[in-house]
UniProtKB/TrEMBL annotation:
InterPro entries: DUF72, UPF0759_sf. It comes from Streptomyces crystallinus. This is DUF72 domain-containing protein. PANTHER family: UNCHARACTERIZED PROTEIN YECE, UPF0759 PROTEIN YUNF.
Amino acid sequence: MTGILVGACSWANPELASSGWYPPGSRDAEGRLRHYASRFPVVEVDSTYYALPSAHNSRLWAGRTPAGFTFDVKAFAALTGHPFPARALPAELRPVGPPAARLRPSELPEAILDELWARFHAGIEPLRAAGRLGSVLFQFPPWFRPGAAARARIEECRKRAEVPITVEFRHPSWLSDGQLDDTLRFLSELQIALVGVDAPGMPAVAEATSPQLSVVRFHGRSPHWGTGSKEERYRHRYTAEELEPWVPRLRALARHGARVHALFNNCCGDAAVRAAETMAQLLAAR
């Protein structure tokens, strides 16, 4: 359907690279992205959550994809309140003193946080300049609950991001019956897209809160969600029957006039790209 772009949350994770989905001759870094972009119109860059983005890589990505191809970029962990490995910071930005294995953003001086924002912007600027940047995803941690401080944090992220942002909540209270209307009203006033999610324990909410973009991320339905290793949490292969109920929801979002990104994050082997292929077929069949 016009206006609904379907893709995956990575084109380069090791399990996908070794799954056999990429044909011979398309398995180096450039070949993988070119092949992916020949099959899908959108991708989410998740590597920028674990390390600051590189302007060099962004220029390469823009040059290796066709006009109209879109990158959504996940915000660096320190910008969303997640603890992160100290080695994820450039050496010159690491705190002075005994080395720490992990850092909390609250432990960083304000000047360092300002520099992280500046470097994040610089890293994705080639995508923006090339017209390939869809939005920046701010996925807040599970302990990020509704309240005045949380709303202020979202407003700050919107202001400092300087590009369109989307927001994903991991605490279900944001989308609960008693809170949902307030959440939708707050995001709509800021014109921030609420990210709908398909994941255990999270309400299946698909509501347009931005006139430009709506996003749904599919994390899988593993019974180990919230308890197992990363591989166990995301190890799920969607069936057509599981995806079918999302087709009218995606179409309803598209009717609001916004572009819709449906992105699969069940990133084990080729499960995400296969699910994206299935969703695209379901949307085309109606």
